[in-house]
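About this split. The held-out portion is used to measure sequence recovery: a designer receives only the structure tokens and must propose an amino acid at every position. Recovery is the fraction of positions where the proposal matches the reference. Here is one held-out target exactly as it appears in the evaluation file.
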């Protein structure tokens, strides 16, 4: 009997549902995908619950039809400019009489590391262990079984606005689906587009979404820094709509079909037809004029992202450079412009590590969806932990899950 895992990428411009069969050993098999326009979200935050629920239902139903099965549980992505992150450090004495470090010691030291002061409106989404120190020996990934009297842990703590998490959970539940976990979207994307060698060398994952640009930095196999820029592809579309005086839907089409982030030699010779507004006659513009509109906004997005990257102490250790994902990364010239601004190698992140409908999901805009499947396989836990079957019970369980950050602690982010 087939065993399915489902992911739900709740973005500002689209909702993307993906279903994978993991019955057989080896790579997950993508058996169903579905997408719908995202109505009801702004910058990753729910602003209209009913519209968000409807969009989720459309995407899930499309994926279910393709897969020939129904799903009742999903791993959902969470993003938005409400996401914040900090690094924490904890120290405990080893409790065992023979000084052998156990899993209980790991849990205690990470609980000590997460004891940071948070505003009352924020909640911990992820506690990601980076490395441990046993006595004076640093850089240990898994200290279980080692001997020592003092155990230290360095962790990366990701927090979000509790109300934003609540509204995402409620939107999913109103669509008659149980949210099994909320996963930071750039963290999910990293599972789909990064290899172990890149995480070891040092790499930045930059997810250019519709409403926000999400950043995650890895070094020595661990996540070291996360941040969010409150601009995305929708801002570029809005600029095109205003600059060309055309409706947003036409602006999006023009951006995708003709848009470019940098000038080329033939810009002035190429022309683009712009649909008129209110029955007005279409008009033609040069491609160079379109680039003049798009390039400043893309430069702003990358410059703000670079400023966030430089806030980390690891900026000079990003040997593998930057991997761009998300729909915004597919804009022609985005990689070249990013290389100029970041002054480091930049590549386009294509999801990998799966079988099935490769042609439908092998695109940077689906990195989060595919990554949610990989995250679920690596960090999944049983749905019977749900505290009741009512909407109230399920939501309380999600909140409890955020607080039970030490679940599956032995599966580190590396």
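Reference sequence for scoring:
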């Amino acid at each position: 009997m087939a065993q399915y895992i489902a992911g739900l990428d709740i973005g500002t411009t689209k909702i993307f549902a993906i279903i994978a069969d993991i019955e057989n050993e080896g790579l997950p098999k993508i058996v169903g995908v579905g997408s719908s326009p995202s109505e009801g979200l702004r910058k990753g935050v729910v602003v209209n619950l009913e519209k968000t629920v409807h969009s989720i239902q459309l995407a899930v139903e499309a994926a279910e039809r393709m897969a020939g099965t129904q799903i009742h549980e999903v791993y959902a992505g969470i993003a938005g400019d409400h996401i914040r992150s900090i690094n924490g450090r904890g120290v405990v004495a080893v409790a065992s009489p023979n000084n052998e470090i156990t899993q209980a010691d790991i849990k205690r030291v990470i609980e000590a590391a997460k004891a940071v002061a948070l505003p009352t409106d924020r909640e911990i989404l992820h506690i990601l262990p980076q490395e441990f120190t046993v006595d004076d020996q640093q850089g240990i990934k898994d200290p279980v079984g080692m001997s020592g009297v003092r155990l230290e842990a360095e962790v990366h703590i990701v927090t979000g606005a509790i109300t934003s998490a609540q509204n995402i959970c409620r939107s999913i539940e109103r669509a008659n689906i149980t949210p099994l976990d909320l996963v930071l979207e750039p963290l999910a994307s990293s599972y789909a587009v990064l290899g172990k060698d890149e995480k070891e060398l040092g790499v930045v994952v930059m997810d250019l979404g519709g409403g926000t640009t999400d950043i995650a930095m890895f070094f020595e196999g661990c996540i070291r820094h996360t941040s969010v820029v409150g601009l995305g592809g929708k801002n570029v579309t809005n600029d095109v709509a205003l600059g060309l005086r055309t409706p947003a839907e036409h602006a999006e089409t023009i951006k995708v079909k003709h848009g470019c982030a940098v000038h080329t030699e033939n810009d002035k010779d190429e022309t683009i037809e712009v649909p008129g507004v209110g029955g007005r006659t279409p008009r033609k513009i040069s491609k160079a004029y379109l680039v003049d509109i798009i390039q400043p906004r893309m430069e702003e997005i990358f410059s703000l992202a670079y400023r966030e990257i430089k806030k980390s102490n690891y900026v000079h250790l990003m040997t593998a450079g930057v991997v761009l994902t998300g729909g915004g990364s597919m804009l022609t010239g985005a990689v070249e412009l990013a290389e100029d601004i970041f002054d480091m190698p930049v590549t386009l992140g294509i999801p990998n590590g799966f079988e099935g409908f490769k042609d439908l999901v092998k695109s940077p805009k689906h990195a989060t969806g595919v990554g949610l499947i990989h995250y679920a396989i690596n960090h999944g836990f049983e749905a019977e932990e749900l505290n009741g079957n009512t909407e109230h019970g399920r939501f309380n369980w999600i909140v409890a899950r955020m607080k039970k950050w030490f679940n599956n602690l032995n599966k580190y982010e590396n």
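Annotator remark: Residues 84-159 form a domain with the Dna Ligase; domain 1 fold (CATH 3.30.1490.110).
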